[in-house]
Amino acid sequence: MQTKLSHVVSIQTGLFAKTMVEGDIVYLQSKHFDENGLLKAALKPDLKADSVTEKHLLKAGDVLFSSKGSKNFAAVYQSKNVPAVASTSFFVIRMQDKFKNEILPEYLGWAINHPTSQRILKGNAIGTSMVSISKAVLGDLEIFIPGIERQKAILKISELYKKEKKIRQQIDSLRELQIQHQIINSIK
């Protein structure tokens, strides 16, 4: 099935809030993620619960899309028993109920992060110094949604490719060290 993202999900903006040293809820910001949408460090609650409405609390399977700046990525929110909300740097993409059994959140994140999707999104970004991708542009993104089993296969292949890429980088680093070591030893 080929469809616009807005036909299968709801998209809402994150919450604007002021953080504090200690709180009850985690306030997710772009700085917490690397360029691939992976969390960089453990998170600590930095918002008070009374400053957050129920509709802004993230649910497991919500997809966060970083819409501002040069680092645009989708990341699937995984609940770690600490409630969290997304900052205004993110759009929160939540599957419509009738599609929850047809689309895996991880597949949706993969589809948004796919280079073709990223080119389309970045090509429609607005602004000069701080570019941003609008909710309308994100909602108009066309995505292909295969059956669940094919989604799982795509995700597995993608995971294996990432592992292969990491191993290749490790091999390259070790090879570099080996060559440098040989050069130093030949000088002595």
List keywords for this structure.
188 residues; alpha+beta; 16% strand; 4 helices; globular
Explain this structure:
The structure is a single chain. The protein is 34% helix and 16% strand. The model has no long low-confidence stretch (mean pLDDT 90). The strands form three sheets. It has a four-stranded antiparallel beta sheet, with helices on one face. Strands 1-8 form a two-stranded antiparallel ribbon. A two-stranded parallel sheet has the order 3-6. The chain contains four helices and eight strands. The radius of gyration is 20 Å and the shape is globular. Strand 4 (63-66) and strand 5 (74-76) form a beta hairpin. It is an alpha+beta fold and 188 residues long.
Note the topology.
Elements lengths: L1 E3 L4 E5 L12 E3 L34 E4 L7 E3 L7 E3 L3 E6 L9 H9 L1 H9 L11 H6 L1 E3 L3 H40 L1
Parallel strand pairs: 3-6
Antiparallel strand pairs: 1-8, 2-7, 4-5, 4-7
Low-confidence stretches: none
- Order of strands, widest sheet: 2-7-4-5
Number of helices: 4
End-to-end separation? 65 Å
Overall geometry comes to globular
Strand count, sense and barrel status of the largest sheet are: 4 strands, antiparallel
Radius of gyration, Cα only, in angstroms? 20 Å
Strand content: 15-25%
- The string of secondary-structure elements, in order, is EEEEEEEHHHEH
Number of strands: 8
How does the helix and strand content classify structurally?
alpha+beta
Mean pLDDT: 90
Helix content: 25-40%
